[in-house]
Amino acid sequence: MEDTGRHLDFVLKHYRKGALDTRRAIRRFNAATSSRAGRRNPAQSPSGQDAGRRKVRTLWLSVISSAAAVAAGVIVYMNTGSRAWTENATAGAVQVCILPDSTSVTLAPGSSVCYRKGRAFLRHRKVKLEGMAFFRVTKDTAHPFVVSSENAYVKVLGTEFQVEEIPGSGNTTCTEVSVRSGKVFFSRTPESKGLVLVRDMSASLGPGETIPVLTNHAPNPEAWATGVFDYEDTPLDVVLDELSGYYGVTLTLEKGKPDRHLTGSFDAGDLDETIFLIEDALDVEISKGQE
């Protein structure tokens, strides 16, 4: 048994892809054993010679088969690994992607998400993101959900949040995370220090920064994905600022009290209708100009 282990170690050590031809090895072995049999002591009984040949042949076939099995296992693993990843990417429109655990990912135009298929995803629940996406994560306490981007790491259990990569000067990138519900851990890498964000909290991680920094949280940073502006006792100037950025216009208070607060939900559709509803609810007048 010890000799068998030495033979197997030798074969595995010197194995190279494409160099192991079992049929050729068996033919060469048969020729060699036949030649050696003719040179052996004639006094040796034929039955003893046959038994010796069968023993040696069995040993080498076992070694060759074991090495081939190991090589085949490596090849299958590598090929399976390359096929196990899938990617969803967007061009000029918002796209919704449903992951194997029923998590919903809404991708902004020009963004992509990469993840493993089937059971491989369910065991680890990891995705790679480029661009911007809004996540509605299915809760699974045994398997945290992880989003990684070029310079950021986000880990959650079940929540709604947004991750956005913002290109900077050169090849730098700033990553922003905004939480709509639940709890999110945000850091640069899995091993580095980070921040725990809860509902209505945002943070950014810029080039050269090791820990995310809290930022002012806009009421509806994910309105592009949800299609809804939802306000709860929100100052009017904050509402107008958010709507101005979303629609690419400049909204200013023309008439009325500036300290008014707004509570209500509006579809992210027709801006003029939204302005009318706000004016009617708060008894104000809003002017609209181009940025």
UniProtKB/TrEMBL annotation:
Keyword annotations from UniProtKB, A to Z: Membrane, Transmembrane, Transmembrane helix
Transmembrane segments: 59-78
InterPro entries: FecR, FecR_C, Ferrdict_sens_TM
Single annotated GO MF: sigma factor antagonist activity
Domain FecR protein: 91-184
Chain intervals with Polar residues compositional bias: 31-48
Protein name in UniProt: FecR domain-containing protein
Source organism (scientific name): Candidatus Cryptobacteroides excrementipullorum
